[in-house]
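haha ok so turns out i had the wrong file open the whole time. this is the CORRECT one, sorry everyone. sequence first:
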Amino acid sequence: MADAPPSNKLRQYLLELRPEARALLASELERAVLRGEAPPGASAILEQLRKTARQEGRKLPRVGNPQRLFFAAVEPFLVSDIAERKHLGRIPRASLDPLWKWICRDLMMREARTYSDQVQLLLAANEKNGADQVARAFQDMVEQRLRECLASVKSDDKASKRIAGQIGTPHAIDEVRELAAILRARDALGVIGSRLPASISNLAGEQLENVKGLLDSPIGRHRDVFLYALLIVMNRLGAPWQLIRLSIHAAASDLAEHIAATPFAIAVDVVLGDLDRIVTNLRDAVKGADGDEIGRLLKDFHDAARALHTEIELPPDSTWGRQLASARAEAASLLEGEIENLPGQVRRLLRPRNGREAIAPLDLIDVDDVDAKLAILAACRNYAGELAVSEATLRVHSELQSYFDNGTDVLLERLRQAVRPRIREPARARRRRCRQGRAKGRKGLIFNVILKP
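then structure:
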């Protein structure tokens, strides 16, 4: 059974740890998994630690295992998105396990078992270099077998469907093709990665010239390497949308039709695909009421969408223009659905109450829901233009502003009543005061978000 996702309290605890402590915890959990001694929930905790590290631009140390060593060459081309969406040159993280099981069960079972046994022994002896060499040899074997497999199903629909069913992912054959291509270009991509800076905060000027020169070199412009080289560059960018500057530079023009005539036009396709990924992750963050993640994703979407129509002359009726409009409409629909009923929820939560109801604590589930939607509203105010939610944001904010302008006195009296202990039992009184104190603190957040200038 898969581990349940970590609770909000556990996520908060992990976020409060120092980065060094999170790295140590991840290493210990991974060693426990390798030994078969992982505690319950280890996988979910590791996933949360890795997610936090990616958001902070950090890399957690990884304790090797046969599967991870094999996919090490694929790491720069993984994407955290739903498996149903196809990304140019990328493989969904969720597809790695199905691909690995297919390789070990159906493609080359005997060789995979030998490889796994050798790597386990080498890692147990702390022979990391030896394990890496064994992994490279196995990658070469798999790449050759994948090419043979793809050639055999090229004109055989029945065989293609059989393999897709064995793997079980929505784009199984495409993922096999991407895996084979990445493994084939592994060494060339390693050279390109070694010649790029670890991070590029602003792809402009001399930095832009250097990257363009690297991609124009014989190794970079090879047809089997070019797309993956672009993705490596994108991974190094502080703002991934800046990849489109390579296409503008190559065309010496910001006109979409001129850019589309160059090989670097694919950079625009990659950024538009990444915009779709942001929308998917935004939907997940909204469901999980992850305010920090929502704010980060909205900023990423805003910056990328603005760049696509300000740095490029993008006609609305062009293919790229329609893709951008579709992504903006999807994001707007998601956000409007979250904030449109917010004024009514706030009024119900803070309505004046009488009798015994007046001293009852606020429902913390309702408070959390309103809190999360207020965070979305605050972020929408910052990025309303590119998110196409300006009208809805202004309307909701105006309704809330009017409510607080006219109902502040009643609200303050409600909060004064909420913190009066009315139950004689000390233990129960303490618990109730704690709950009411937390609720009162939440209301302070409501004032700060809604009434700020």
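The radius of gyration is 26 Å.
again sry for the mixup
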